[in-house]
């Protein structure tokens, strides 16, 4: 129980009440409902606690089944979730989403997977307190995504995840024209269809000037899209940038390092699956604007074939890439590095970088 929760607790009961004193020592929220069985006073008190609860209801591999809907219907009837502010749903139909969000209008965090546009419509209509929304792996398309960013109820959003939602430059245009998205600092658009035009629209908008996290993995932006991103005067607060699988190549590394405003604050950079060779890595690791980078992902640099990830036996780069990373004065602060595949002797060589961890994913 956090400090705010306990303060609220003491407002409900006298500070000398032994129940209030005892409850402050129970840190595991999953025990709260069991505690309600002690006596009526405990039950009454617990129903009023501002507790953050995350419920995970996962579907089987075929998606939705009736048992999921039954679970959500039971949840809505619960006496203990009136102050629910965090929820994760999966394998649900749009009607489930609508019923849940109508009941729990205090939600600040919501994650919904495997949903359709009508679920997005309901979220946009009933949840004025959301600060973080995750619709990843939902088929809400442009129409559902646009309903989110155009809703005044979404004015408090700081984090928006629309991975795999099948959005395009049409959504990007509506996002940047919305008067309610000014507070966004995290935007994830993995595996969509933004292409060059979508990135151009996002890059030229001041509405995204507070972004610190941006994921554009597998959006077919290419070198032209990267140029728009790097030329943006609104993206200079980014600390995490994911450009995985966008066919950037060595020329993309030249573009990236010649526009230092986007690199200077980056602590994480993902360039996996971009057909980068030794030459591109040399350009990258010798840029003085990479000096704040702590996580660098360069795996699978034979690139992608269409939408399918191809794991090859060899990357386009060689063992020289490891030597260049080790020798670069701007890579000494690295804490996480991905190079796939990597020989054991390369791992030994990389031990010369203090605190470095080799990551596989």
TrEMBL record:
This protein's source sits in the domain of life called Eukaryota
* Record bears the keyword Repeat: yes
Q: Which UniProt keywords apply?
A: GTPase activation, Leucine-rich repeat, Repeat
Database matches in SUPFAM superfamilies: RNI-like
Q: Where are the transmembrane segments?
A: none
Report the record's Gene Ontology biological process terms. nucleocytoplasmic transport
F-box domain sequence ranges = 17-53
Any GO CC annotation of this UniProt entry:
cytosol
Record InterPro entries: F-box_dom, Leu-rich_rpt, Leu-rich_rpt_Cys-con_subtyp, LRR_dom_sf, RanGap
Give GO MF terms, alphabetically.
GTPase activator activity; small GTPase binding
**Record protein name field:** Leucine-rich repeat, typical subtype-like protein
What's the source species for this entry? Naegleria gruberi (Amoeba)
